[in-house]
Amino acid sequence: MAAPKDIFSKLQNKIIEKSDDFSKIDAVYKFVLNGSNGGTWIVDLRKDTLGVREGNEEAKCVVTMSDENFIKLVEGQLKAEAAFMTGKLKLSGDMGLAIKLGKLFQK
Question: Average pLDDT by consecutive 10-residue portion of the chain (107 residues)?
Fold first, then answer.
């Protein structure tokens, strides 16, 4: 099973490869992952600061979940809607931005 750090590393590469597409979102996401492999990651989709980094910054959309459920979500073993409805995935901030998250993690 992959670790969140590995997933965010791959996401960094994907964002750089498709920077024109992702920078159109023009927002900052924060992922707060609880658990032994958890941490706080910033996914910055603003043109001038595009990238992924560990840290705690202001964000327009905050995703909070366990590291285990995050991995399941990214690997397709857990559906975002089901995770949200059962409280395994918590969102705060701009819900419109939350809907765009799927594009980030599509293979």
Answer: 90 93 95 96 96 96 97 93 95 92 76
**For strand 61-66 and strand 28-34, is the pairing parallel, antiparallel, or unpaired?**
parallel
Output the DSSP codes for 15-75.
HHHTHHHHHTT--EEEEEEESTT-EEEEEE-SGGG-EEEES----SEEEEEEHHHHHHHHT
Structural domains of the chain, with CATH: 4-101 (3.30.1050.10)
CB 33 within 8 A of CB 54: no
* Whether 52 contacts 44, CB under 8 Å: yes
Q: Model pTM?
A: 0.94
DSSP designation for 82: H
pLDDT reported for residue 56: 94
